[in-house]
Amino acid sequence: MQIFEQHESGIRGYCRTYPTVFSTASNARQTDENGKSYIDFFAGAGVLNFGHNNPAMKKAVIEYLENDGVLHSLDMYTTAKRSFISSFVDTILTPRSMDYKLQFMGPTGSNAVEAALKLARKVTGRQDVVAFSHGFHGMTLGSLACTANSYFRDAAGVPLPHVIRAPFGCEPVCQGCTQGCGLDSLHQLRAQFEEPSSGLPRPAAFILEAIQAEGGVHVASAAWLREVQQLAHDLGALFIIDDIQAGCGRTGNYFSFDGMGLSPDIITLAKGIGGIGTPLAMNLVKPEHDAHWEPGEHTGTFRGQDISFIAGTEALRYFEDDNLMKLTRANGILMRDALQSVADRFPKRGLQVRGKGMMQALDLGDGSLAKQITADCFAAGLLVGPCGSGGRVIKLIPPLTIPDEDLAQGLAIFTDAAISRLEAA
Amino acid sequence: MQIFEQHESGIRGYCRTYPTVFSTASNARQTDENGKSYIDFFAGAGVLNFGHNNPAMKKAVIEYLENDGVLHSLDMYTTAKRSFISSFVDTILTPRSMDYKLQFMGPTGSNAVEAALKLARKVTGRQDVVAFSHGFHGMTLGSLACTANSYFRDAAGVPLPHVIRAPFGCEPVCQGCTQGCGLDSLHQLRAQFEEPSSGLPRPAAFILEAIQAEGGVHVASAAWLREVQQLAHDLGALFIIDDIQAGCGRTGNYFSFDGMGLSPDIITLAKGIGGIGTPLAMNLVKPEHDAHWEPGEHTGTFRGQDISFIAGTEALRYFEDDNLMKLTRANGILMRDALQSVADRFPKRGLQVRGKGMMQALDLGDGSLAKQITADCFAAGLLVGPCGSGGRVIKLIPPLTIPDEDLAQGLAIFTDAAISRLEAA
Amino acid sequence: MQIFEQHESGIRGYCRTYPTVFSTASNARQTDENGKSYIDFFAGAGVLNFGHNNPAMKKAVIEYLENDGVLHSLDMYTTAKRSFISSFVDTILTPRSMDYKLQFMGPTGSNAVEAALKLARKVTGRQDVVAFSHGFHGMTLGSLACTANSYFRDAAGVPLPHVIRAPFGCEPVCQGCTQGCGLDSLHQLRAQFEEPSSGLPRPAAFILEAIQAEGGVHVASAAWLREVQQLAHDLGALFIIDDIQAGCGRTGNYFSFDGMGLSPDIITLAKGIGGIGTPLAMNLVKPEHDAHWEPGEHTGTFRGQDISFIAGTEALRYFEDDNLMKLTRANGILMRDALQSVADRFPKRGLQVRGKGMMQALDLGDGSLAKQITADCFAAGLLVGPCGSGGRVIKLIPPLTIPDEDLAQGLAIFTDAAISRLEAA
Amino acid sequence: MQIFEQHESGIRGYCRTYPTVFSTASNARQTDENGKSYIDFFAGAGVLNFGHNNPAMKKAVIEYLENDGVLHSLDMYTTAKRSFISSFVDTILTPRSMDYKLQFMGPTGSNAVEAALKLARKVTGRQDVVAFSHGFHGMTLGSLACTANSYFRDAAGVPLPHVIRAPFGCEPVCQGCTQGCGLDSLHQLRAQFEEPSSGLPRPAAFILEAIQAEGGVHVASAAWLREVQQLAHDLGALFIIDDIQAGCGRTGNYFSFDGMGLSPDIITLAKGIGGIGTPLAMNLVKPEHDAHWEPGEHTGTFRGQDISFIAGTEALRYFEDDNLMKLTRANGILMRDALQSVADRFPKRGLQVRGKGMMQALDLGDGSLAKQITADCFAAGLLVGPCGSGGRVIKLIPPLTIPDEDLAQGLAIFTDAAISRLEAA
Description:
Largest sheet of chain A: 7 strands, mixed
Number of domains of chain A: 2
Low-confidence stretches of chain A: none
CATH superfamily of the largest domain in chain A: Type I PLP-dependent aspartate aminotransferase-like (Major domain)
Strand content of chain A: 15-25%
Helix content of chain A: 25-40%
Shape of chain A: globular
Strand order of the largest sheet of chain A: 5-13-12-11-8-6-7
Structural class of chain A: alpha/beta
CATH architecture of the largest domain in chain A: 3-Layer(aba) Sandwich
Largest interface: A-B, 109 and 109 residues
Distance between the termini of chain A: 32 Å
CATH topology of the largest domain in chain A: Aspartate Aminotransferase, domain 2
Oligomer: homotetramer
Mean pLDDT of chain A: 97
Number of strands of chain A: 18
């Protein structure tokens, strides 16, 4: 580890939480160079929905490499990209009767958000965007302006303008929160927008995660989401869902908002769509909005990542039937029950369990407690990650493909660690 | 191609220049699905310095995959990352007595620039950054503010503040340009900064490419670059070199500014450092500046790309001796001579040849002419890319590893196409 | 009127509402060049609290002119300014145990607000300011950013950043308004500021009018105002009351917020303080904040207006006893009763009467109706002015010195006009 | 003076330079309360072109007051305003064949500039404005963004965006200045604007003073001014001359740019146009631009100042013949000769005399020296004011109506003080 400490920037973070050097990984386990194996309930911050080194993907990628497939293609046409597009359309869009153009850009979620914001501003000729408490949308200046966390915002060194902040649609509201999240404050926001003397300009877009991941696993109600969409459209604004972490099957459906009666103008995707952990980002854009782009107006060197197209095409096979999603929903219940059992054991602490599918979280209301539990889990061979304000929430996002025994063992490690620390607190 | 036209966003660009579907690629050649082979003088916009499917890299990557190496690691420690860091320090930094911290971020050049700007602003407590005519630094709002091209800027939909524009240090100045590029305008800029009533605030940083690639292959003189560095330091600002496209050996040295007596505060790298075409971005930051980062202040899901670390480590072997760089310089002369022969044939047109090492360009002064030549080359089996204002410059950036016969054949195709069109014009 | 139509800018406004040429004015009456006399319920948009050509002021000004008193003095010391300062301290500040520094600047309310915002930003080192729905603070870019009305904001031609918008503290809330004005939304705003992941930065200041005049005569509750002050101080922000239109006796006390237990960090004054209608602006600044100013950091050519000091000193005599304020409160009740009688006559229309002291208004909920009534009043010899969103509110602000018979006659004209139009509507 | 020190804000400035309390003033003399008389070479920072208490104006104002003329009228029509408009059109515009609309606004120069910027942005739909080194345009956020002096800019507390800075057109250039002022840098600026990859957006306007007053009395050449106008029009931008301090006869013509072949799109006026020292501001706007205003889009409580209209109408009589302007030009030569004699006496110091008409200045190149000379003058009974960067320039702007003996005596005091200090230095 000395090499890292000596030469790598002090900005490095997760390595401080998991102070070891990893060498191999398979499905829901990472192994360090000393041979210690860890159950992975973090999955690359939500990238590895299909496990580390997913065998089918690995096979396809190796085959592609051995055949000298094109590895880097900007926005040229490649056979690998065509396969991915076809599979995505056939597997995801067509069954849902969704009509969207697929836009590829620099392969980060932040870049997807930047592109979405540019387009919304072009389409509407407006500048301001509504973003919500606890929202996380990236680190570059455009997306960072939509990100809520002040730790990240304060690092910008410049103002982050053109964003109107509003409380999120949490249901139920978080323990102790009095921001007024939910429909009431949304109705007030509508009234502000409709009042010509509120000082709020008509926005270009509303951007949100249906389930906020990094922000602390806040789940919006479908009614609130529909009302945001309605408000956006009533104001002539675009409705953008950032499904970068919660999409790609994480919540028990391909999209986190499936079945809610929503039809976003733009959907941003990244993280899981490349399948194996290599980068890819893609926006789904309604054709009438896409028509506002001129060729090459938003470019990116790495927007043609064919390894990601190959592995991503394999990933899409998981959605040809409902097996993985059924399992995800079932495992989600197991996870939730485990967390709820911890919460119920300490009724006076007001612990809250939140989540959907295989993104489940325990809000401990206390960042230092969460840090201790995380450290205990690591020592016991489990990787979990804190999130939310001050890191007070522990989010469990194992690969969707996790074996039952790893899931059970991981939950046991977590509940033991949490209970011990809570009893001692 | 119908699948793309039907489903992919209208923003796609290069596929319009190269209207075919590529399937495989090897060193300096790409082959489309009809079996037609193209010599590649574009190299993934400067990513593929070591050729498509570089055999050593491919072997290392396949081996890594077969061994279940960690593929996605955020900023956790991995053995693959350690190898990369060690190689980079030993091969690149130590021989140059350069003392820098390595910072990894979201794997795009734009993200590297965003991180550099944040840090410069944190270090200085100032907001404004000086950027130059023709500079290209990325597409996200922070980096886009430093990018000069109005086609990209106009797509932002919001103002791009906190950047002071100045003419670049081209030597010689471009045909017909009267912006006053070079030392004279730089001295005036110094006087403006030193005058308390110029209205120009003290800047946080000066950011530039020593050789501007996308902007049209403008080469700054060493004297101008040293004076920019001196001015930055006299003003208490950071001196940032964006070596994303010109670095990693492209110009005949590892860094485009090697041997010029420069010591940038931050060097941004991306494109070529991942070796095989998979994404990676890295900043070299002087330790005294790096100390201003708090852990995790600038994050990115894909900042731990182990395939890129593995292939990038192989790429660094090319710099253990001077063979590839010697060849690069020699081939650069061949390329320049070929272009100059075209320019010399049409003395009245004021064609200009510019470049360094294996980035050489012909400034045709006319975007539609450049477009025609590019199309003719494509038809004849050569990929070249226009750049600069209105696409008036054709830039040749083949893989550094291109076989002699491909280089010769490619140059022949290009000069034929250029001469035909110039004669007809 | 042809001279005006031919040569004056099309931006002129009130002359379209009152299409005649005025020549003389005395107390609450203006007379046009045809000899028609109008009762003035508009008082120069709240400037002429002490009537047109107030005899004592007129006498003092003429005397000052005849004695060659200094008329223009920047921020040099003059005897006239000293008299004004002494009177203001003795008559207004000392009896209230208020300890403030007096700052003079360019003689407009907008300039007073600009100075207050600069100081708040200097004191706190922060940039954002909280301003409220319907607030009016001026037309220059800094103050305009705090002004709510979109008609004015849209004319800026640039973004108006660094302001956070919130609903006002109206009590009761306006007919049909669902912005959530009042304590509930203020508590939510507090929660947003206290939540590090709301995206809201700590503000430099909260700026508000205790009674919003131009915005449509919205009266904040004392409880809400106290809570804003408390919130500001809890966040380390300054609490600024813009008393430009509602101050100087208009509401039945010198300050509109007298007796509410408030202690603003900065109070902005203009309009009425010059007494006779000549310009003057002045901020009251707590000494600990004033200490952050460097000499001459905010200047203004016309900041030393000695005619205004002379007439303003006369104006202060009205506050040496409670006679005028008693009368103001009594007349305010008369005015309110008159308006309420109109409202009561049309119970289904939800007309609302709002105001305090001699600023009383009828919210007609309909700008075109208000425009018609205003025109009818003008024809009948009464000047009233619409305000609020779309001009739907008619605000009555006669001179505080209006003779009883003028007040009665004016109210009769107004109620007749309003009733006729309401019956016809 | 204790009253001021105890109660007035620490921001007060000129009173520190002139530490006495003034009571009366007449033409070119101010008298303090101890009876000491001072010759006024400062004239209220350029307001009092026609002297303190100009007898004709005083008489007219007193008469107007005695007749109960309207004193405050917003943008209603009054007889006083009509007289002023008619006189201005007949005396100033018609003889020059100038076709402009007259726009009145809040009565400060800063407000005039804010209105001009709004209109330029509305007309062009663009945001950026070009402003120049040493330019002074006001203190509110919009005008301050165009002001060059960092002492004022740094007090804003927020960024001052949407302004592009360029060197001014000084001829000759100031001693020691290497900013490249003049036509060369203007040609480079043109080239930058015409190059689509310079990063400079097309501007809404160019704003400048033909003679910079507060900035240090820099005189632009007519050729440079014409080229700025041409560049503006070639770019589709407005050409705005801020004639607030240099206009109204100061330079020996009514406008400072008379006779240069210029036709600005907007001319901003304030300071001297009210004649007697009371506030007034007015923009002259070409009718085709004025047509973009909607009624009341830019308002201001004090935009109808009838005392200023009355006195300003008297002031216009001075321009019915050329007597005052002839005298101004002649006295300007006297002033210049006196200053030049000082400069010539110290040839090694590189002192520079600059100015036009009765705005003449000595650039001492040293702020502390200028401060000492100013203090010596004050002690000897002469008021002069330093300006420019660090206060290194002493500007002489006596009333145009100054008696010969006062001018001679004042110049003698100044030259004695300057020579003594320069000899001692």
